[in-house]
Fold this protein.
Amino acid sequence: MNRQNLLILLVITLISAGCATITVPASDTYAINTTCEPGKELDKKSSLSKVVKVAYPKSASAINSRHILYQEREFAQNAYAHSSWIDTPNKMLGGLFLSCIDKKSIFKAVLPSGSKGRSDFLLETTISEFYHHVNNAGSSEGRVRIGFYLIDSNSRNVIATKEFYTKVSAKTHNAKGGVRALNDASKSIALKLSRWLSSIM
């Protein structure tokens, strides 16, 4: 083996050894707490004889994924590289809404989207914003905007609609802080949803 080939082999060996020591950061997974804990103002009342079905929440494909989204500039959203949701926000939020409506006891029964049971009402949901917003001033917050549509299952008529928008400050400007703020914002909207349904029923 001549000197040039030996030098090439040595360089390749050193590069390979260097690559072998590179470690990929561990990926953190987070969840939205789907357990609803209503305050005193949401104590159970007498249940109606009606049944409601909570449809699977709709959203843009970027939200309906396991990516945790953040936004630093207007119109530009990215996903945290080493953090993700344990499931899609759509599925977890659907579980949270179902839990809160059920604990409020507004209806005789609250059915999940996959149920084959008959319902008097259908609650449709559209998630238009769900991300960690990082401001230029150094602060950040979880932003959640969700629209709700209560539909008569028999006539298909829309009985009532409501949109809720909530911002909750994040304690840290990373995925962990964003997730906690998004959890608090989601719970706030779930409780507002329960109060709204109670008021119209």
The beta strands are 28-30, 51-54, 58-59, 67-73, 76-85, 109-111, 121-134, 140-152, 158-169. The chain has three helices and nine strands. The mean pLDDT is 87.
